[in-house]
Amino acid sequence: MIDQQVPLRRGATRLSVRPRTGRFLVLAVVFICAACGLVYELELVALASYLIGDSVTQASVVLSVMVFAMGIGSLLAKRLRGRAAVGFGLIEAALALVGGTSALVLYASFAWLGESRHALVGFSLAIGILIGAEIPLLMTLIQRVDRQDAGGAVADLFAADYVGALVGGLAFPFLLLPMMGQLTGALFTGAVNAAAGGALVLWVFRRDLGRRSRRLLIGVNAVVIALLVTASVLVDDFERAARRAVYGDEVRVAVQTDVQEVVLTGRGRGALDLYLDGRLRVSSRDEHRYHEALVHPAMKGAHQRVLILGGGDGLAAREVLRYPDVTSVVVVELDPAVTRLARTDPALSGLNGQAYEDPRLTTVTGDAFTWLRGTHDRYDVVVSDLPDPGITASTKLYAAEFYGLIAGVLEPGGRLVVHAGSPGSRPTTFWTVEASVRAGGLATRPYSVGGRLTGFAAGPDRATGRAESPRDWGFVLAARQRLGRLGMDPGAPALRTLGERELLAGRRSAERVRQPGVPPSTLVHPRYWEEP
Question: 195: pLDDT confidence band, cut at 50, 70 and 90?
């Protein structure tokens, strides 16, 4: 809370600028600092969601801790009102250093320690305290610049603060993130923050500073800016070293797209791993078991027209295209970089059997939910090959409403198959998917397949500290009509490992961990929380 008992005195006689100019400069710095503060906040939320997962939880942690810390910072700042100018200068230098390097340290803790939650809370607390200390000191400074009642000063300060927050909030996703990336964007923001705070104090309020205070501020700001500039020069080397720590030494492709980070590791078809946003999505060591189990049970029956939602790597399409009577396959993929790699990367295109060269296959770039709302086509088979469900951007793709849209594009005898996570390690999530499919108006047959060789070497699953990786995959087969026995189409190609006996065993295995009464997930009530 701002103390309104600060004496109103004519500080203009001690300023190096006119009172009106000084007031404008103070408000301009408020604007810049507010923009920088919000960038730090958004940077923590974005990076934490990428490294730890569950974006709702991470945003809640960052925002709640930061707002709480701002209150602490406001109270602590009362002790600095007697030396408001030098106090504000030092606080801005500290905020620039802590905020500017926060993304760097958060990523380093994840890469080398495998844990970033404690660093996230620590940075949220530190940045919140420093931001909270700004306004009381700025209130003192602006009242010293020009004679103004406390209410008017508060109105001016908060107006500049809120407008700055708006600009910072828009600059982060539309300028900083696409042009500089997360790490360089945070370092650049810290340099701007330090320069603005230091310039205000050392120019407008320099007559309030003793010689030692002036030298201290100049030295501190020079060191902070030098550290941030040095870090920005070395950030590419740091990213490569951190990437090797996370993914190993055989990183062949690393691309930050508008949607996600795409990383390919391994030197050949026999050793290929595909990571999306730090999570292992495909491994050549066992992907055939996953994709055979995903595709072939759904192909029992009419399957001339097939729709694949996700699956931009082309591996589900590879299995579908093994049926000679398939006439068309449509792949709806959000990230065009994934489909581009699936076409052009020798190892990945070799693994998917050059599926994108087949004239029967058509690709669509877009969000599967939005695309389904606009299509009027009908399909015999729909394959949902999407990322694991969670409280993230993919949550709506595991909602009952999404499955209702799919039901609308199925032919009367058509079938849907959904990758639903691991029933062995995440049974609640698996049965929530099954309940959501049923809520979308479809009959279901859940099943699982074991023999999973690879878990998750990076991303949220690494950060949870789980002792064991998932050892199975879970699926839900669904149709508008009652489903018969799980099995294969009479014209199914020869498979490497999957057979009807294994499917029936997988059906029984899934049923053993059934959780009755699990409610479905909907758009307004998502239910995919992380399981212990």
Answer: very high
Cα atoms found within 13 Å of the Cα of residue 20, Cβ hemisphere only: 0
Instruction: Identify residue 425 by its one-letter amino acid code.
Output: S
Is 11-245 a CATH 2.60.40.10 domain? no
Angle at the Cα of 390 (from 389 to 391), degrees rounded to 5?
140
pLDDT band at 148 (very low <50, low <70, confident <90, very high): low
The answer to whether 419 is annotated as binding is no
Pairing state between β 361-365 and 328-333: parallel
Look up the pTM and report it. 0.85
Annotated ligand binding at 510? The verdict is no
CA 77/CA 81 separation, integer angstroms: 7
Q: Which residues are catalytic, by number?
A: 385
Specify the pairing of strand 443-449 against strand 271-276.
Answer: unpaired
Report phi then psi at 95, rounded to 5: -65, -40
The mean pLDDT of the chain is 89
Q: Are 333 and 339 in contact (CB under 8 A)?
A: yes
Query: Domain residue spans in the chain?
Result: 11-245, 286-512
Q: Are 318 and 282 in contact (CB under 8 A)?
A: no
Class of domain 286-512: alpha beta
11-245 matches 286-512 in fold: no
Using pLDDT thresholds of 50, 70 and 90, give the confidence band for residue 437.
very high
Residue 210 DSSP symbol:
-
Residue 260 in marked binding region: yes
Query: pLDDT tens digit string along 464-505?
Result: 344 456 889 999 999 998 898 899 999 999 998 898 899 999
Q: How far is CA 12 from CA 19, 143, 146, 172, 234, in A?
A: 5, 10, 6, 36, 44
